[in-house]
Amino acid sequence: ILNVEQSPQSLHVQEGDSTNFTCSFPSSNFYALHWYRWETAKSPEALFVMTLNGDEKKKGRISATLNTKEGYSYLYIKGSQPEDSATYLCAPGGIYFGSGTKLNVKP
Amino acid sequence: EPEVTQTPSHQVTQMGQEVILRCVPISNHLYFYWYRQILGQKVEFLVSFYNNEISEKSEIFDDQFSVERPDGSNFTLKIRSTKLEDSAMYFCASRGTGRGNIQYFGAGTRLSVL
Fold it and tell me: What residues in chain B have per-residue pLDDT under 70?
């Protein structure tokens, strides 16, 4: 089992704010890192799979970076909207999930 | 868009009973997974399955659990003798080959053990 840490645990922002959160994981034997978006009462939805050190991925207003040498990934949301409210999960190796960052965007 | 389907959506059972949770992965996917999420806790990996055998399992996946791909389309999780602490949402997921492929999750089965 990997020790995966996500911070902060929760985040409350106003509509239009940009925000970011962190996923930390052991840097040894890195394979891939998955980011998921999980809305209440739904199943996790994959955002990105990142495999290479220095990877940057973007999907609309959401982007992510990866540093495999130091064992962290950042997820950024530009101009948060209420529909971005969800829990954002990272999963090193794609299977061991962090506890998530719960984002609440207020209109 | 293809999707992973899980049945039933909610299963209620008595402690000690056997349950089988069913999943139909996306048809051309070769990797299959089971996860669970106990209410208020994080998503926990149970088992991964590839080429008709278990490729990895967590410490949660003890002798009470088993997986099977009985007919080439369904992927099942069996809990032999359910305990109260098995009450959770169980998610199935599948993905194609390749390190960069994403996992697609089903909607989950809520298991309630009474």
Answer: none
